[in-house]
Amino acid sequence: MRVLGVDPGLTRCGVGVVDGVAGRRLTMVGVGVVRTPADAETGHRLLAIEQGIEQWLDEHRPEFVAVERVFSQHNVRTVMGTAQASAVAVLCAARRGLPVALHTPSEVKAAVTGSGRADKAQVTAMVTRLLRLAAPPRPADAADALALAICHIWRAPAVHRLQQAHARARSARPAAPGAHIPAAPAVRRPAGEPPAPASSPRKAP
Questions:
Q1: Residues classed as catalytic
Q2: Rounded distance, CA 90 to CA 104, Å?
Q3: Which tens digit of pLDDT belongs to each residue from 144-198?
Q4: Does the annotation place 59 within a ligand binding site?
Q5: Is 7 annotated for ligand binding?
Q6: By C-alpha distance, which of 135, 137, 159 is closest to 146?
């Protein structure tokens, strides 16, 4: 499984590609950051992020794209830029028909370090160890992108089993009451018994 992890950001958008399957050794294929100038117009910055992600998709041909799910923060301006960059990553993947997974920061931290409250230094240290890198990825956005890819590789089997369980539960769910009322069975008369006489219509007085 090859996964492109995207840590969305308007100024620095981290990207990292990891190969591997759950339970086996993982390999880093590439890591980097797509940067945009802070003084550029938002539209031009988003276009630069799109072009950068497209280059990574062209070069590494991932099977999945994992993007950090954006949460509200105190700085509304920052979270808006992050959400816009996230949407660009999802768009690039959808254009190629690639499945996209959104993982929360706590899910990524828990998957990589074992604690959903780990700090960035702990995440970077574990990413360096898990991928057997000679040096920690810099900046932190790049390490976070690799952590997203690792998280998806490790969580994908469990998520797939959960989806299958939900599908089986839906298919086995009984019909709602009153959805189908079977017809009343026909009354069988004993052999030789004459049929009941038909009642004559009643006349109005």
A1: 7, 68, 141
A2: 15
A3: 999 999 999 999 866 656 556 666 788 887 655 655 555 555 555 555 555 555 5
A4: no
A5: yes
A6: 137
